[in-house]
Amino acid sequence: MASKMLFRANEILESTHVPFWGKDAFQYFQSDILSEENPFPCILGVEGFKKDLLRFSFVTTSYNYQDIRNAASALREYIDTFKTIGRYTSFVLFFKPEHKERSMEEYETMFWDTLTFLHQIDQKKWPQDIPKDPKDPLWEFCFHGEPIFVVCNTPAHSLRKSRKSRGFMITFQPRWVFEGMTGDSKIGRHVQKVVRDRLKTYDDVSAHPELGWYGQQENREWKQYFFHDDNNYTTGQCPFKLKRSEQHGCKKSLY
After folding, report:
1. Distance between CA atoms of 55 and 79, rounded to whole angstroms?
2. Chain center to CA of 61
3. Measured distance CA(172)–CA(232) in Å, rounded
4. Which long-range contacts (C-beta less than 8 Å, at least 24 apart) are formed by 239-244?
5. Quick check: helix, strand or coil at residue 92?
6. Residue 172 in contact with residue 75, Cβ under 8 Å?
7. Element housing 55 (H / E)
8. Judging by DSSP bridges, how do beta strands 169-174 and 90-95 pair with one another?
9. Most buried pick, 166, 172, 207, 241, via CB within 10 A?
10. What angle is formed at CA 20 by the lines to CA 18 and CA 26, rounded to 5 degrees?
């Protein structure tokens, strides 16, 4: 029988399938997201956690083939069921904290390598209604047939505390979660205001200038996936690599 890979919050601390480091990373995450003294900026994540809508998985490293296959398996299981969980659901993937210190640039490479690796072993084709070119404002990372907004947290983040974590961590939020939520909608304006207000006190750096709404002409989703502490730091082009079998019909191959 295969080991359990996908967990609800109330299962983690008692589970024999979650390693000690995973329980420690989860408790660190839980204390951040539930803090009343210093409210976490992502109100959808906070609401989702309180309503038991988040799902979690734990793998050792992003550079091990079997670990990524396990992560892909847990993510597929989550995607198959997320619409039955609840609107503000997310999938959080924890990696074992390392003893060595890594630079922000190293973590950024790890992040994009992980997304590319997941894409390479994806068993479903890229959705026809989602552009394959990251330069398109409607592009989003896709896995198992679903477009997914992705956020990376690392131990290297210091000033941008909203992106800091005990170890390398990736959160996957299905695009479905944000349906009806735009800069022109009442709920969208409310969420944006609360998030921006909380960021002012939570982070020691101003909100990143690349924060924007999906689909807006000037917005590029991939630029929001990994923020550095320095708002002036820019990554020239999207590091995500589209596999060869998907490049047919792409507006322009970036690699």
Report:
1. 11
2. 16
3. 25
4. 239/108, 239/109, 239/112, 239/116, 240/112, 240/115, 240/116, 240/119, 240/134, 240/141, 241/116, 241/119, 242/119, 242/126, 242/132, 243/119, 243/120
5. strand
6. yes
7. strand 54-59
8. antiparallel
9. 172
10. 70
Helix (H, G, I), strand (E, B) or coil at 134: coil
Burial of 246 (0-12, 13-18, 19+ CB in 10 A): middle
Residue 8: alpha-carbon gap to chain centroid: 17
Distance from C-alpha of 70 to C-alpha of 65, rounded to nearest angstrom: 9
Tokens 């969420």 found at: 191
141-143 and 146-153 strand pairing: antiparallel
**Pairing relationship of beta strands 169-174 and 54-59 according to DSSP bridges:** unpaired
Calculate the alpha carbon distances from 92 to 56, 129, 166 in Å. 5, 25, 13
**Alpha helix ranges (H) inside the chain:** 9-12, 20-33, 43-50, 65-85, 104-120, 186-202, 222-225
Using the 8-state DSSP alphabet, how is residue 226 labeled?
A: S
Spatial CA neighbour of 181 closest among 213, 147, 211: 213
Whole-angstrom Cα distance, residue 175 to residue 182?
A: 12
Phi, psi of 162 (to 5 degrees): -70, -10
CA distances (Å), origin 116, targets 42, 195, 211, 212, 239 = 26, 29, 23, 23, 9
DSSP letter assigned to residue 113: H
Q: State which residues of the chain have pLDDT below 50.
A: 1, 252-255
Please give the sequence-ordered ranges of beta strands (E in DSSP) within 146-192, or none if there are none. Answer: 146-153, 169-174
C-alpha span between 156 and 168 (Å, rounded): 9
